[in-house]
Specification:
- The protein is mainly beta.
- It folds into two domains: 5-176, Sandwich (Immunoglobulin-like); 179-311, Sandwich (Immunoglobulin-like).
- Helix content is 4%, strand content 44%.
- The chain contains two helices and 22 strands.
- It has a five-stranded mixed β-sheet. A five-stranded antiparallel β-sheet has the order 15-16-21-19-18, with no helix packed on it. Strands 3-12-8-9 form a four-stranded antiparallel β-sheet, with no helix packed on it.
- Strand 13 and strand 14 form a beta hairpin.
- It is elongated, with a radius of gyration of 31 Å.
- The model has no long low-confidence stretch (mean pLDDT 92).
Length: 312
């Protein structure tokens, strides 16, 4: 009885984690698969691999990198796995034998006439506070193959395929800008006349992507008229109010100079630092006031909804 399997090392296609925002990079493990680490085999074996067979690959990062490197030098750490499980981590720069742990057999790499490849699984670590941009790493993958390609009667090995070959494998991930926003509701309380409403002084907290310059805008709400925001009652009456930058009288809006830049933050001005911590957040103070030059409307509950947006 005789069967034969032939293997070769081919060019790979890049593996990608895709587009991931900076908050998810920092807080959530990302996973992806490289469909091929470059080894492709065809054939049909009638038994499992022999104890003296080996399919070894050594993954060496070009330029001595230790992770995905971005445009500002930030690094996203991740781990390579030989199977879709954390039980099979691959150590950079050290040979990993895919013939062990039953991985080659489980993949059916030598068990059919259609070409099959060895996939690599990748998982990021949740420790990276990084800037936006393309993150990339390229490996040289050195394969060392030594296995019995044909079996005769009594499981005698009829011949071995022995060769060494290299290919490259590129991994990439694109980090997109993101912000975590804390914005409390504005509550004026109650008063019998418009002059009785106190000024509400509060702030908006933003934790945006490391190194990002951005602007923050507040739209005109749902009932704007005459350049003033207005709250509306269920009876269709209006109470005009507005939101002003910091502690002054400059209206905070959504267009052009009416927006606020990250460099204009009252606490931690400048570009975002992406830390997600309260101490690292950028704080934008504001005051909200009911206009006192309007007639007092009928009693009721007055509501409005204002959209806060961030532009990078």
């Amino acid at each position: 009885m005789r069967a034969q399997a032939l293997c070769q090392v081919l060019a790979t296609t890049p593996a990608t984690f895709g587009l991931v925002n900076s908050t998810l990079i920092r807080t959530t493990v990302q996973t992806t698969t490289a469909p091929s680490a470059g080894l492709s085999c065809t054939g049909s074996l009638l038994t499992l691999l022999r104890s003296d067979d080996s399919f070894k690959a050594t993954f060496t990062a070009n330029n001595g990198t230790t992770g995905l490197v971005g445009p500002t030098g930030d690094v996203i750490l991740y781990t390579l796995y030989a199977n879709n499980s954390t039980s099979y981590p691959i150590t950079r720069g050290q040979p990993y034998d895919f013939a062990r742990n039953g991985i080659i057999d489980a993949l059916g790499l030598l068990g059919g006439t259609s070409p099959k490849t060895v996939p690599i699984y990748l998982r990021t670590q949740m420790t990276s506070n990084v800037a936006a941009g393309l993150y990339q790493e390229t490996f040289t993958v050195a394969w060392s193959i030594d296995y019995c390609w044909g079996l005769g009667l009594g499981s005698a090995c009829l011949g071995r395929q022995v060769f060494n070959a290299t290919t490259t494998l590129t991994i990439n991930l694109t980090v997109t800008n993101d912000c975590q926003i804390s914005s409390p509701n504005i509550v004026f309380g109650s008063a019998p006349v418009v002059s009785g409403f106190a000024t509400v002084s509060q702030n908006v907290n933003l934790a945006c992507t490391k190194g990002s310059a951005y602007t923050v805008g507040l739209d005109d709400g749902q009932n704007v008229a005459g350049g003033r925001r207005r709250m509306k009652s269920s009876a269709g009456n209006y109470l005009a109010y507005d939101i002003f930058k910091s502690g002054g009288g400059v209206r905070w809006g959504s267009l052009s100079s009416a927006r606020r830049a990250s460099s204009d933050a009252d606490i931690n001005p400048g570009n975002g630092n992406g830390s997600g911590s309260a101490a690292g957040s950028q704080v934008f103070n504001y005051n909200a006031r009911v206009y006192t030059d309007q007639a007092t409307p009928p009693a009721g509950d007055y509501l409005d909804s204002v959209i806060l947006d961030v532009q990078f």
